[in-house]
Amino acid sequence: MEGIVYILCAATCLACAGLLWRGWRRSGVRLLLWTCLCFVGLALNNAIVFADLVMVPAVDLSLVRNMPALIGLGLLLYGMIWEGGRP
Q1: SS3 56
Q2: At 86, is the pLDDT very low, low, confident or very high (cuts 50, 70, 90)?
Q3: 17, exposed or middle or buried, with CB in 10 Å at 0-12, 13-18, 19+?
Q4: Neighbour count for residue 48 (Cβ, 10 Å)
Q5: Distance between CA atoms of 16 and 82, rounded to whole angstroms?
Q6: Torsion-angle region of residue 59: left (phi > 0), alpha (psi -120 to 50) or beta?
Q7: How many CB atoms lie within 10 A of CB 40?
């Protein structure tokens, strides 16, 4: 049952990333791009959590699975600091 939750979380993050990408392409607001990239990182994180905890539970992938989330949140932080004040 927990595997289904991880897959649904990854799918939800990808859906959000797709909607943010479409909004960025239409409006050109760069903060939408940075948020989209953050959600892609979170989707990768959820996919690796599924692989780590469901597919190969004997192997500890905690460092590998946290890297996409860290990079995604770093991109969002960069976008909020440097692009958030621009129109």
Answers
A1: coil
A2: low
A3: buried
A4: 20
A5: 22
A6: beta
A7: 21
Q: Measured between alpha carbons, how far is 39 from 85 in angstroms, rounded to an integer?
A: 21
Q: Which residues contact 7 (CB under 8 A, 6 or more apart)?
A: 46, 50
Total H helices, total E strands in the chain:
3, 0
**Cα 80 vs. chain centroid, distance in angstroms?**
16
For the question of whether the overall pTM of this predicted structure is more than 0.85, the answer is yes
- How many other CB atoms are there within 10 angstroms of residue 7's CB atom? 15
Distance of CA 34 to the CA centre of its chain: 11
pLDDT per residue as tens digits for the range 49-84: 999 999 998 988 889 999 999 999 999 999 999 876
| Per-residue pLDDT at 83 | 78
